[in-house]
Amino acid sequence: MSWLVTGGAGYIGAHVVRAFQKAELAPVVLDNLSSGIRDFVPSDVPFVRGSILDGELIENLIDDHEIEGVVHLAGFKYAGVSVQKPLLTYSQNVTGTAVLLGAMEARGVDKMVFSSSAAVFGSPDVDLVTEETPTGPESPYGESKLIGEWLLRDQGVATGLKHTSLRYFNVVGSGYPDLYDASPHNLFPLVFEALLRGDVPRINGDDYPTPDGTCVRDYIHVADLAAAHAAAALRLSTGEAIETVYNLGSGDGVSVRQIMDAMARVTRIDFEPTIATRRAGDPARIVASGDRASRDLGWTMRHDLDEMVRSAWDARRSAE
Fold first, then answer.
1. Disulfide engineering: 155 pairs with which of 44, 161, 210, 219, CB 3.0-4.6 Å?
2. Residues acting as catalytic residues
């Protein structure tokens, strides 16, 4: 029996695939390569190029590879861009998830780990986000992820689907030198590309009510995130009790200034970031508790900030 990993050729998905291999959960990848990279998928892992909007393809894939469960990462993930492209976001993330669930139901596959997002919370006015914090997404992307969680919930009631959703903030670092974050929207690659061009990275606002005046966020290492997905799949496979939602958070967070300082230390490129005005809608602090995931999934922050930066920097340079 195998596990289908949708979006398994992406930065996060490729790490999940290798975590599944380590856990002896045979992965099969489905990816349309709109943002994924084919070489990220190990040569010994079955790969199917296709869309989660193609229900017939998914049903045939389930039959061909004896799929017992699905880890669902595929989708349109850029929160800012989703405001300009809401229909694309809903098509990929809501309709795509519904089609995937329909194919699973048609073929009797009853286990799913959903890669959700802390974007479902919006800008919560709390010091520490927990699973009980009210949701309030502020972008089509966040809304689409919350609807995805609702779809799983309702399928659980209707068909007995066993499921869990993992919510997380900023994913950074690399677990392997050949896997890197190529996103044009994420902070780490944006800073790296600026440094490689000889430009000076920018901080948007340094007058927030935080210790150093810059925004504080959760940053988690991609290998730790991938391990949590594998742990959740194992619990579903063995029939152990599992919660429907887990936050994968650090509990304390780091500031943008701290990240810039770590970038200078690790890259050995001495720079002083420029300070721009605040971006509209940026809350001062969003940090989540990972206590529930620690209890059930063995979740822990195994990498400090410098290790996150160093692994990401090494992977980015190896891509040249």
1. 161
2. 141
